[in-house]
Amino acid sequence: MSILVLPGDGIGPEVTAQAVKALRSVAANGPQFEMAEAAIGDAGLHQAGDPLPEATLEAARRADAILFGAAGTYESDLLPPEKRGGHGLLRLRKALDLFANFRPVYAFPELIGASTLRREVIEGVDLVVLRELTGDIYFGTPRGVERDASGQRIGTNTMRYTEGEIRRVAHAGFRAARQRRHKLCSVDKANVLETMALWREVVTEVGRDYPDVELTHLYVDAASMHLIRRPRDFDVIVTGNIFGDILSDAAAMLTGSIGMLPSASLGEGGRGLYEPVHGSAPDIAGQDKANPLASILSAAMMLRHSLGQEEAARAVEAAVREVLAEGYRTPDIMEPGARSVGTEAMGDAVAAA
Ligand code: NAI
Ligand code: MG
Questions:
Q1: Residue ranges per domain, the chain?
Q2: Which residue out of 188, 189, 210, 328 is catalytically annotated?
Q3: Is the peptide bond before 142 cis (omega within 30 degrees of 0)?
Q4: Considering 9, 42, 138, 188, which one is annotated as catalytic?
Q5: Of 136, 245, 274, 328, which is the active-site residue?
Q6: pLDDT tens-place string over residues 305-331
Q7: Any catalytic annotation for residue 245?
Q8: Residue 136 bears catalytic tag
Q9: What is the best residue among 66, 278, 298, 350 to mutate for testing ligand 1's pocket, by most ligand atoms within 8 Å of CB?
Q10: According to the annotation, is 221 in a ligand binding site?
Q11: How many A from CA of 87 to the centre of ligand 1?
Q12: Is the ipTM of this complex over 0.90?
């Protein structure tokens, strides 16, 4: 089994190093993997003049699974796409056709006190946001900034989905719901956007194949409210690329911190890309402050979904629970009386557990 590690930028390398430690600890107890590392993001730009160097893409195509950190910085975000670190990740997801991005949102009982939300709202929260990842306004054309006849600049992006793209992610949503509590909520903006009217129609059609799954629909604005007000009612949420991006950051706060949210990006085959939901966090990079648990939990998802190592996945998840129960806390989830640790020490504690 081969794992390609893409640390990327900012806190990416810091948190990914902790996930690699956890994987080494797992390997010491059984499953063997080969791990190789490659450059992506601003790091790819510096090393090879491209946020997704050709060698990185080739290595990604050969690997069984990819563990990714974060790509991009505020500086490169403002450059044209070919010089933008974050664009390397978008291109990688697209090149590997990783269209289904699963973002589990689980309120760890040990962390309820660290959330800014009320205990009675978040206790028992266990949902998955399934974000479509290779279509929508992120990729639709026409796009760009031009000038009209009067010389005024116009920025354009296009929200675009084919019915095939909607259908395959809808199937993924229904299948996921079947393995959980049999509830799927599709989130769109069908009242205003043609693309989303088609979304609702196709999801409804696909739903006929899954009579055992309860399908509901919400507009994204209302969904963002319900997600905060009654998060326990949700099981699987399926939505488009941009709505999923925004809703899952909001949902992160149900867990206490975005530093707790892992994700898996899957295609039709077994290969997947696993990454924390957060970005490169330039505000805390290089300070040993980042929470590595999202990255470590992403490695657990990788063991489960791409490497067929369910037992090892559970061991990693149990280790995370254990260190939380022992009171280890990075600053983002700090509570009075807990044991304040940095990125490295948290990683060491999980690897030891
Ligand atoms: P961000 O997720 O990097 O940070 C948002 C806030 O959450 C910051 O205050 C940060 O300190 C905090 N945070 C994030 N991860 C944390 C962790 N593990 N532990 C503790 N605190 C954490 O989002 P932001 O600031 O919007 O973007 C920063 C850069 O990352 C930008 O250049 C952006 O383009 C890029 N980005 C990359 C992503 C990716 O590679 N998948 C996803 C989102 C943003
Ligand atoms: Mg985001």
A1: 1-104+262-353
A2: 189
A3: yes
A4: 138
A5: 245
A6: 999 999 999 999 999 999 999 999 999
A7: yes
A8: no
A9: 278
A10: yes
A11: 15
A12: yes
**Per-residue pLDDT tens for 2-47?**
999 999 999 999 999 999 999 999 999 888 899 999 999 999 999 9
Q: Are the C-beta atoms of 327 and 349 separated by less than 8 Å?
A: no
Q: Whose CA is nearest to atom 13 of ligand 1?
A: 281
Length of the chain: 353
**Residue 143 assigned as binding residue:** no
Note if 94 is an active site residue: no
- Contacts by residues 89-94 (CB-CB < 8 Å, ≥ 24 positions apart): 89/8, 89/40, 89/41, 89/51, 89/52, 90/138, 90/139, 91/51, 91/52, 91/57, 92/40, 92/52, 92/56, 92/57, 92/60, 92/66, 92/273, 93/133, 93/134, 93/265, 93/273, 94/134, 94/139
* Helices then strands, each counted (H, E), the chain: 13, 14
Q: Decide: 199 and 190 in contact? Cβ < 8 Å.
A: yes
**Cα 103 to ligand 2 centroid, rounded to whole Å:** 11
Longest Cα pair distance anywhere in the chain, in angstroms?
Answer: 68
Q: How far is CA 93 from the centre of its chain?
A: 12
Name the nearest CA neighbour of 165 among 128, 193, 139: 139
Residue 235 appears among annotated catalytic residues: no
Kindly indicate whether the domain formed by 1-104+262-353 is annotated with CATH number 3.40.718.10: yes
Phi, psi at residue 101, to the nearest 5°? -105, 105
* pTM attached to this predicted model: 0.93
